[in-house]
């Protein structure tokens, strides 16, 4: 049987070239609004160091440096194709200050206490060992550093009609769009199924606390389709 990390690599190798357009089409552009909200929770300045893990094509990173161009932003992702497309796109936009690093969220190649912010958008559900990735997030943050995670929620608790429509869209329409645009139906089936397997908002908030983060919270966005999680590394 193929391991989760191999499957995830295969999925993102396959979708990398159509990733940005598929995101816009699938979410009707909503992912940009969610990411904007994520970036609005940061108070970045020229002394800030931010690590965007599973940063893919650098969407979040670009929004951060648009807000504050002097912030030091490193985009880290396990998939070289995603990073390469992101780097090329950033160069085309003349955003040359971003740093790009190909690495696994479970084994970050950074020393302890390096970053003021650790962000991860739509990435945590793809890592094989979530606890290890969260421990790494905690390790690389400075004391008082902020953990910010954006992720789809499994929608177990929504009203029945909304859930039915959302399921219909997710399981029937998204894979077909994947087939049409990215020429890959199976990868989009995986992406949709992985959302349903992700813990509920409360369960994931508990997981964040289990590795040491304090003052944790989450807020639902767009009727709970996605959720934004926050947590802080303790000061001492
Ligand atoms: C859905 S994309 C999100 C990309 C970007 N954050 C965004 O919101 O547009 C998920 C990303 O997670 C990356 N990823 C999956 N497993 C990873 C891991 N163990 N370590 C680092 N990145 C990983 C994939 O390569 C992919 O680029």
TrEMBL record:
A Pfam family of this chain: Ubie_methyltran
The keyword S-adenosyl-L-methionine is assigned to this record: yes
Gene Ontology molecular-function annotations: 2-methoxy-6-polyprenyl-1,4-benzoquinol methyltransferase activity; demethylmenaquinone methyltransferase activity
Record's keyword annotation contains Transferase: yes
Superkingdom field: Bacteria
EC number assigned by the record: 2.1.1.163, 2.1.1.201
Signal peptide, first to last residue: none
Group of enzyme by EC: transferase
Gene Ontology biological-process entries: aerobic respiration; menaquinone biosynthetic process; methylation
Sequence positions that bind S-adenosyl-L-methionine: 57, 77, 104-105
Keywords in alphabetical order: Menaquinone biosynthesis, Methyltransferase, S-adenosyl-L-methionine, Transferase, Ubiquinone, Ubiquinone biosynthesis
CDD domains to which the protein is assigned, alphabetical: AdoMet_MTases
Pathway noted in the entry: Cofactor biosynthesis; ubiquinone biosynthesis; Quinol/quinone metabolism; menaquinone biosynthesis; menaquinol from 1,4-dihydroxy-2-naphthoate: step 2/2
Reaction catalyzed: a 2-methoxy-6-(all-trans-polyprenyl)benzene-1,4-diol + S-adenosyl-L-methionine = a 5-methoxy-2-methyl-3-(all-trans-polyprenyl)benzene-1,4-diol + S-adenosyl-L-homocysteine + H(+); a 2-demethylmenaquinol + S-adenosyl-L-methionine = a menaquinol + S-adenosyl-L-homocysteine + H(+)
Similarity section: Belongs to the class I-like SAM-binding methyltransferase superfamily. MenG/UbiE family.
General function of this protein: Methyltransferase required for the conversion of demethylmenaquinol (DMKH2) to menaquinol (MKH2) and the conversion of 2-polyprenyl-6-methoxy-1,4-benzoquinol (DDMQH2) to 2-polyprenyl-3-methyl-6-methoxy-1,4-benzoquinol (DMQH2).
PANTHER family linked to this entry: 2-METHOXY-6-POLYPRENYL-1,4-BENZOQUINOL METHYLASE, MITOCHONDRIAL, METHYLTRANSFERASE
Protein name: Ubiquinone/menaquinone biosynthesis C-methyltransferase UbiE
Organism whose genome encodes this protein: Candidatus Mesenet longicola
């Amino acid at each position: 049987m193929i391991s989760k990390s191999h499957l995830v690599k295969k999925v993102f190798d396959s979708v990398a070239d159509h990733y940005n357009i598929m995101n816009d089409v699938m979410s009707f552009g909503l992912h940009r609004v969610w990411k904007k909200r994520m970036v609005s929770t940061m108070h970045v300045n020229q002394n800030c160091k931010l690590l965007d893990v599973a940063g893919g094509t650098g969407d979040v990173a670009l929004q951060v440096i648009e807000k504050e161009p002097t912030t030091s932003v490193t985009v880290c992702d396990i998939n070289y194709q995603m990073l390469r497309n992101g780097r090329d796109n950033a160069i085309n936009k003349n955003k040359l200050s971003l740093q790009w690093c190909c690495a696994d969220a479970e084994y970050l190649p950074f020393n302890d206490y390096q970053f003021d912010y650790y962000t991860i958008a739509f990435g945590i559900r793809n890592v094989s060992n979530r606890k290890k990735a969260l421990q790494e997030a905690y390790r690389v943050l400075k004391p008082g550093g902020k953990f910010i995670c954006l992720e789809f929620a499994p929608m177990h608790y929504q009203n029945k009609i909304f859930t039915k429509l959302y399921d219909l869209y997710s399981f029937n329409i998204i894979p077909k769009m994947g087939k049409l645009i990215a020429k890959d139906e199976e990868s989009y089936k995986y992406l949709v199924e992985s959302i349903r397997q992700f813990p509920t908002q409360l369960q994931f908030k508990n997981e964040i606390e289990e590795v040491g983060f304090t003052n944790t919270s989450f807020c639902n966005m767009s009727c709970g389709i996605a959720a934004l999680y926050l947590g802080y590394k303790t000061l001492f």
